[in-house]
């Protein structure tokens, strides 16, 4: 195994970590492809005669599949080769998305076909996510975590900016084109991942492992600050998932075309891109608890505005502000999980984190579709705004009481490879540093050479309905 490329202090991780750069490129292309089909899934359902509720059902099927498979996927990621899992998942998603142009060409495309694709792609995505999370713990030093997560957030934000607009335009040219492009992106991603040389660290022969499926959830129950943040995000994600479907359907009902809807949804990418670019500055100046509560307040106000207008320009401008603070919050949660979780539990911890944040969100799209059908878009927006406000008020006490998330900020390593400031951080089990066992390595000491994929912890912004990801 080659020596680890750590780079010089302050060096951008994309330049100093070739393997991380390969993953970053594959992730960017894959995310861009998924953003192309972001609008295409509900629009395609509507174009073949489906209702708003049916459009939301496609997204919900994908989200429910991911939710059900989260814990088993984390268990597999803790035991099997991560790169094999990621490449296999990309190939499965390639086949699933390719089936849409194929079946459409045969003239047999229907709601059942789209539901099957949503389920298969959701399952593959569930397997992919924890494997990617473990890789960043192995290969990115703690001092580089904010850089790695920020660059990943920026890539997702850029894709969110370009993808919906481009996807909406492609849909107007041919409703099948966004899906063909999405399938191609998974193929390119698989090729790039095959070139990554990361491998899991070897475990000591006498290492005792907790092989229970629920080990990640058990660990999270002892992390009060992280748990408080996750429960808040869970509530906001329900609103977020419902808002995605509500926005597409309401704009469509008001007469907006695919290109206009894509431009509006692209504004979420503008907000996310600006938020990712400002993340490091914001994280240093706003305590984690206040950042989360600020997100809740902005969501409540923004959704209230959506209830009063269908003007795409107004909605787009407000959407930029609504999404702006979410990338920094996602980085705070992701960094805390990567720093605190034991290496042998990280796959299950990451999926348990996702389960808490996105479990209820699985119901968001289909509920939004039913509400829009039954009481109209305006009242649906007001109901979502009230939900965001209630979640924020209820979460304020536990969030403000816990401040330890701010203690996981990045620190440099000293000449001995030790993490500066690590002595002041709580270990995952609350034990002292001297009590840590060999199977709980530091991120840098556990890592092989190169760098791997950033573990993308779900953050509060809009999930992708076609792919089932929050």
UniProtKB/TrEMBL annotation:
Signal peptide: none
Entry-linked InterPro entries: MFS, MFS_dom, MFS_trans_sf
Bias (Basic and acidic residues): 416-425, 433-443
Native organism: Streptomyces galilaeus
Protein name from the UniProt record: Multidrug efflux pump Tap
Transmembrane segment boundaries: 39-64, 85-106, 112-136, 176-194, 225-243, 263-283, 290-307, 313-333, 345-368, 380-400
Record flagged with keyword Transmembrane helix: yes
Membrane topology summary: Multi-pass membrane protein
PANTHER family, alphabetized: ENTEROBACTIN EXPORTER ENTS, INTEGRAL MEMBRANE EFFLUX PROTEIN-RELATED
Domain Major facilitator superfamily (MFS) profile: 1-404
Keyword field: Cell membrane, Membrane, Transmembrane, Transmembrane helix, Transport
Pfam families: MFS_1
Subcellular location: Cell inner membrane
SUPFAM superfamilies: MFS general substrate transporter
Entry keyword Cell membrane: yes
Record family assignment: Belongs to the major facilitator superfamily. Drug:H(+) antiporter-3 (DHA3) (TC 2.A.1.21) family.
Annotated region described as Disordered, given as residue ranges: 408-470
